[in-house]
Amino acid sequence: MAEEILYLTELLGLKVYDLRRRPLGRVRDAVLVPRIHPVRVDRYLVAGGGGYVWLYVRHDQVAEITLDGIWLRDELLVPYHADEYALRLVRDVLDQQIIDARGRKVVRVTDITFEIRQEDGHDVLHVLEVDIGMRAVLRRLLQGWVPRRWIRKLQRRVPPNSIRWELCNIVEPDPQRRLRLNISMEPLEQMHPADLADIVEELSPEDREAIFEAIDTEVAAEALSEMDPETQAQIIESLDAGKAADILEEMAPDQAADVLGELEEETSEEILEEMESAPKAEVEELLEYDENTAGGLMNTEFIAVHEDATVADAVDALRQRQDLVDTINTVFVIDSDDRLRAALPVGRLFLAKPSARVTELVREDDEVISTRTDAPASRVLELFDKYNLLTLPVVDDEERLAGVITADDIISVLRGR
Questions:
Q1: pTM, 2 dp
Q2: Arch. (CATH architecture) of 5-164
């Protein structure tokens, strides 16, 4: 076997020879069937009879594959027929946008590299890489004009730019076809939400919808929270109301309210109808506030304990909200009427005796900086800047704790300006 690799551009137009070494036709496409094998070319689509008759050549009917042609060991070929489980590399992948999971970017496929392997005494092709660089462009420009081996010599001067096949994620809008082709979204689900958000924003509306329909709901919520309001609204509007509701339920109530606030009232109400009662109530409460007030900026995910609680009680409350562990830095102390009494740094709790009351941890110089729900956003920004706050509690007219505004919320406000 003279060559170990073959490019799709070289495979296209390659002559196919029968057992008597007579040409039967030329290769027009290569087909993967992921449910059978994730990388092996399962069959070749060959145009014979003047190009009007297309035939299937199975991988096990091939004896040898070289730059000079494909030689068969079995001539019992069947006419081409559409196969919903088949991924045609020319039709479905070449020149299409795919996602580079490791590079965290959207790329366009310029060529595909195969590895020629021996399997049961005959040659097979395994998809090795997707080519996206100038070397692949050079091959395509010269193919058919310059002998294949000459092109290989010329391309050595151009650095390769490729992505391993297993690191590529094909975007397929049709959910049924995604299932048949066994396309996994796991590489995308393992990305950082901000990286996934950047990728999704580069895609067409149809492809965005396809990804959000297919990925895990929690991952979708995290990625959506990293996007600008306009894109958030476009994606949520494109989804089925039930799917949209599932995603919004995984978001922080204030973020979900912001997304719904960008939608048409009819669409927003339809999605709210699909939400579970608890998150729905929180979101509806936040939607009542003007977005340019403290009430519109706050979220309702905070931890508050009664003033008679012990340190052990407060720590237990933290354990019960492990979903907030990465963002909570303050535990609030309230009285029997939910009025705000104190704000304790989480670190102070872990240095105290479990039996101590939380009020004993409040120092004389501790001052609770808070604001009203109707305070303008400019006042909120002023307080964060003046007191270098990480968290700002928001109270209603009766001093009851209604929500909190975090530094992350402020960054989002500043980023949107």
A1: 0.78
A2: Roll (2.30)
